[in-house]
Hints:
Layout: E1 9-13, H1 20-30, E2 34-36, E3 40-41, E4 56-57, H2 60-68, E5 72-78, E6 81-86, H3 90-95, E7 99-103, H4 106-115, E8 120-125, H5 129-138, H6 144-157, E9 166-169, H7 173-188, H8 195-204
Parallel strand pairs: 1-7, 1-8, 2-7, 3-4, 8-9
Antiparallel strand pairs: 3-6, 5-6
Helix pairs in contact: 1-7
Amino acid sequence: MKTGLKGVPIVVSAPSGAGKTTLCRLVTEKCKDVIYSISATTRLPRRNEEDGENYLFLTKDKFEQWIEEKKFIEWAKVHNYYYGTPKKGFGENLKKGYNIIMDIDVQGGINIKKLYPSGIYIFLLTKNANILKQRLTRRKTDTRESINGRIMNVKKEIRFIYEYDYIVINDTIKKTVDAIIAILKAEACLTKRNELTIKKFKKDL
């Protein structure tokens, strides 16, 4: 299916453990006009993660070199690691009419919004905080100290929730993917995204 959008950045932010990466990937599988932006990071790969598929895994020195060379649209330090959105191909894909979905942290989301105020900004939450804590513990990819740090970070991230246009509760994967796609389709119908169609209609009257 197609969303009807053309060249729009779609930012999905969420606390760690809310499942944003999986959901973004599934949206791209269902929507032919949406592509996934692979972020760069200095953290080590988790189990089953591959370089160039899940993330671009860079050394700290390499990441900082890319910062100096202005190779990122946005970057931030989160949980003591660098994360960033590579500039290469981003603008070109938007111009070609592709919609780019990104799963990035709140800092990155706000930076993207400054550059692309007409983008779509979605914040994912779990039904309650206990579910989020359980997910972080169950995935067994972080130490107890790291999990506690991530939970503390959620308290900071939640302050910026009103910078986003939509909140989606990640209940089941199917419901959440359907909700995100419904948002994209509704956004495609906004008058501000259909000015050419409106002008043509008026001209032909």
